[in-house]
Structure formats: structure tokens, C-alpha cells
Amino acid sequence: MKDLSKLQTSNGYIEIAAFDHRDSLTKYIPEEKISEFKTLCVEVFADSSTAILVDPEYGKDAIDLSNKLKVAGIFSRELSGYTDTPQGRNTELYQEYTSEKLKDMGAEAIKLLIYYNHQAANAEYQRNVVKKVKEETDKINLPLLVEIITYPNQNETLSKWDLTIQAIKDLKEYTDIFKLEYPFDPQNRDFENDIDKLKQITDLCEKPWVLLSRGGMDFENFRKAVNACTKAGAAGYAVGRAIWQEIKDLSTWEEKTLFMKTTARQRMAELSAML
To answer: Of 51, 82, 69, which is closest to residue 151 (Cα–Cα)?
Structure first.
């Protein structure tokens, strides 16, 4: 098993500030400010995070700063989004940013987002993408975080829980850390009642797993979900927009910066204190 200590707190938890957003981030801030925003995130979240997750397109300055602050840097290996094909959603890799190149740029772990439906015609293609990146990261001895985003085929009746369970089974051979969505609809949910089922994920993964924030989950729901998941054995979280998505409603860069330095910082500190 690879050494994960650089990504962990002293008691073994993983607390990732995730801001590897690219195309989607232009909905929040101007493109010319994206690199500066990512550096700001490192400044704001370094004290309450074990690692920061960025992309190589806009995040090199952020990684450089995280290295100076002794916070582990993680780079994304995949291009933003996916290619929609008749066979399913294909994850595409950067050609110029191999795992070895990303390590040279300062990464201490590599993350791969994979869109996956085990019944889709491209399921084997997607598994091979994960296998390829796992081989790369094994060669350079860096941990690989596999972020699984499940999706239904047209007219499919499988639930997110079913899709998540099968994805874990199919991909755990090529994974050092799982980065997983909450496997149920988080809206109006009693998260405490999910703990016993979430323990099944912990048992099945056989590797550390962290909860990611996705699907419009707001901070309060994400906080409750983290509490339930860690009680069920999750190793921590990787959180992005649940912390700072309200900046889309702020007009000026100064307002957005103030929000990050106050509300967003406080939220991240609250999550860290829970663990």
C-alpha cells in the first residue's frame, strides 16, 4: 500500500480543499481571475486542509504555494468534462500532463475523475483509462485518487446506490483512495439513518474513501453528510463548491475575496474541527 501520510492529519483523516474546477468556474469568476482565485484558495484553506486539489491549466501557482506551506498538492489528470458518445461518457486525459509531468510540477498525489456506468457500452474503455493512470502513478510511486461520478443510461432503473456499489467493485483494483459522491439524494434527508448502509461502502472499498461535494449540495447538507460518512468509516472529505458556491451571487472581485476570507474559511475550519 502506498504511503498516504502526506495527505493525512496526525489521526489519519484526509481533508482536501478541492478547486480543480475549470470550465464550470467561469460561471463564478472571470477566466482571467481563475489562477488568482486558486492561489487565494490555498491562502485561505491551508490552515485547515491536509491537501489541495487543482488542475494543471490554472493551478501551477497554487501548487507552488501549497508546497511552500507544506500542504500536499494534488493535480487532476483528466481534461475538464467528458466526451458524450453513443456508448457512454468518455473521460479524456491530458496528453501533455502525464502523471510523471504532474509530479515534476509539484504533485504529491494524482486525481482522476471517471464517469462510470457498468452497464454502458464504454464501461471497459473507462476501466482501461483508470488502469492506465494507475500504472503511471505506480511507476512514480504517487497515490491515485479515483473520483467516481455515476450516471444512468436512458430508461435505466438502477439507483445511485446500485451504480456506486458496482463502480467500487469494478475499479478498486486500480485505486489507492476513492473519492465518492453521497450515494443518496441529500435533500431533506436524515443522514444519521444512512450510517449503517454507508458502512457497506467502507467494507467494500478496502481502501480509504472520502466524500466529495457535488450535485448542488449546500454546506449544511455536506457537513451532515461528512458527519455520517466518517461515523461509517470514511477517511474524510474533498470539498469544493459546498464551501464557496455563493460567490456566484456576488458582483465584484473584492466581495468574492472577502467571502472566501471570512465565510468560506470558517466553513472549512468547521469541517476540519469535526474530524
So the answer is: 82
